[in-house]
Amino acid sequence: MAVALVALLLAVGATACGGGDDSDSTQAESAGQQQSQANNAAQGGNQSKEGSSGGGDSNAGNSDGGDGQSRDASDFVPQKHNDSGGGAEQFKVKGGDNSVQEFGAEADTEEFDAAAAALHNFLDARAEGNWAAACQHMSKSVIESFEKLAAQAKQIDDTSCGGILEKLTNPAAAQAMKEEAAKANVGSLRIEDERAFVLYTGIDGAVMTMPMANEGGDWKVASLAGTPLS
Length: 230
Prior knowledge:
Helices cover about 40% and strands about 15% of the residues. It contains 8 helices and 8 strands. The strands form 2 sheets. Strands 3, 4, 5, 6, 7 and 8 form a 6-stranded antiparallel β-sheet that branches. It has a two-stranded antiparallel ribbon with strand order 1-2. Helix 1 (about 1-15) crosses helix 3 and helix 1 (about 1-15) packs across helix 8 (about 175-185). It is globular, with a radius of gyration of 17 Å. The two termini are about 30 Å apart.
């Protein structure tokens, strides 16, 4: 069980390096591809402590920094990010699978800014190692799913959302997570009712998508990592 969770969080770093579809199964498949790495991590002992067509400004601020001290969610300070916008048309691939690019409809400016801010806040908090803050921007379904798994893993003492992320995030993914947080540029939000997909460019210009869920009027990321579209 612990190995499965390690694989899931190893995928966070792997997908940060940059296609994907519109289902949560894509994330599970990505995590599965990291299984061999997870086995090595587990055997070695896991000791890490870890859309409108126009652009918009969105609010998106530290790993324990190697000092071994967990950070409280209140320590996180949202940062300012300038997103280029432009809509999903720019990400369409001729003759390719454009199911995400054509999902629902392009969001208005207000929804675009809100969802972009949620994505940036999640990426920034994760990059800083502020796991509690990162959890505040994750959907309930994602949190509940891996909290249930972690509750069965004897190696994990703190089964809270933040505790799980801190304990199992692979240190090797730290730099990639920081780079993705710094370079993420949201170009589109495709929305349908309470579901949506943020399309953004990340490391080396890779086009990524993150599923989103609207919970009580607030947008939350609905996966532990973005999925490359190509």
